[in-house]
Amino acid sequence: MNTTVATAAPAAPGEPAVLDLTAWTCPAPLRDQPRVVMGHGGGGALSAELVQHVFAPGYGGDVLAQLTDSAVVSLGGARLAFSTDSYVVRPLFFPGGSIGDLAVNGTVNDLAMSGARAAYLSCGFILEEGVEVSVVARVANALGAAARAAGVEVATGDTKVVDAGHGDGIFINTAGIGLVPAGVDLRPQRVVPGDVVIVSGSIGAHGVAIMSVREGLEFGVEIESDCAALGGLVETMLAVTPDLHVLRDPTRGGLAAALNEIATASGTGVVLQERDIPVPPAVANACAVLGLDPMYVANEGKLVAFVPREHAEAVLESMRAHPLGAEAAVIGEAVEAHPGMVVARTGLGGTRVVDLPIGEQLPRIC
């Protein structure tokens, strides 16, 4: 159990001891879980602990230790980005997409965050006994259409069937590979104080769209997922300069989780201007009703970039000229202060800590 501790600095005889406030430690929530809970898949602190204490020690290896969206490896003289992801979203179809679209776009986007254009995907379907073949065909067709739109080919696949009651209709795993262009080096360790933080558009639509369909909620207007492949947008940004420092797609855990991961890995602080973060009015209203913070809600067609200040204006202009970056906005900067911490300056002039979420506000969103 963690406790708050303060040490006293030595004092002259007869004088009171002086508390050393820099040595204080604050209690943290107890998260000792003997069994897996839904939060372990939410992209927050529980997910990070599972990776750090279970998977990373079990697998080993220097490449995995980078813990980026996709691994960059050298093979035959080429630099390849390699990524895999599994999709368990419920429902299978939602406004703006389906599990098939997610399975393609999610993996394509993970590769794009390393600067790579996806070339080939593998696709594994896990089907629950009893699911209608017409539903499987609908998902497969959506997956194929998304792959063609993203300019990537499904080169290999696998199918397994589990007993009725031991699945949830359809689960999908995709893995992808792509080439990383020469001179491109995207990783959080390259972030330095002064970097400008840019988000490619409004946040929170995907998570709210999933929840509205799953729970049968109506907000006066249909909210559609932002599910999209970001490879073309990233190519547009790299055409301005290959010297982008890091890209991240804020999926599970939302923008808050992505920024906290970058701040921790880079050892810099991040200061956001909360009023500059684009949130659609419908999403903002839905989150207000449900007590959610849009910064923690998942996205499936947005990216956040840390860009050297001298290139920020040109990169932002190029993003706004692309259909998937029309709403791009500068939302903050990397700073020397409070390393590893993300804070937001509110519209009222205050400052709040934007912490890493424990789990996920909305489970099963990807």
What does this structure look like?
- The protein is an alpha+beta fold and 366 residues long.
- The protein has 2 domains: 41-179, 2-Layer Sandwich (60s Ribosomal Protein L30, Chain: A), CATH 3.30.1330.10; 188-353, PurM-like C-terminal domain (Phosphoribosyl-aminoimidazole Synthetase, Chain A, domain 2, Alpha-Beta Complex), CATH 3.90.650.10.
- The chain is built from 8 helices and 16 strands.
- The strands form 4 sheets. A 7-stranded mixed beta sheet has the order 11-13-10-14-12-15-16. Strands 3-4-9-7-8 form a 5-stranded mixed beta sheet, with helices on one face. Strands 1-2 form a two-stranded antiparallel ribbon.
- Strand 5 (93-94) and strand 6 (97-98) form a beta hairpin.
- The two termini are 34 Å apart.
- Residues 1-11 and 16-30 have low confidence and may be disordered.
- This is Hydrogenase expression/formation protein HypE.
Question: Which features characterize this protein?
Answer:
single chain; 366 residues; alpha+beta; 60s Ribosomal Protein L30, Chain: A; Phosphoribosyl-aminoimidazole Synthetase, Chain A, domain 2; 7-stranded mixed sheet; 5-stranded mixed sheet; 16 strands; 28% helix; disordered N terminus; Hydrogenase expression/formation protein HypE; PurM-like_C_sf; PurM-like_N; HypE
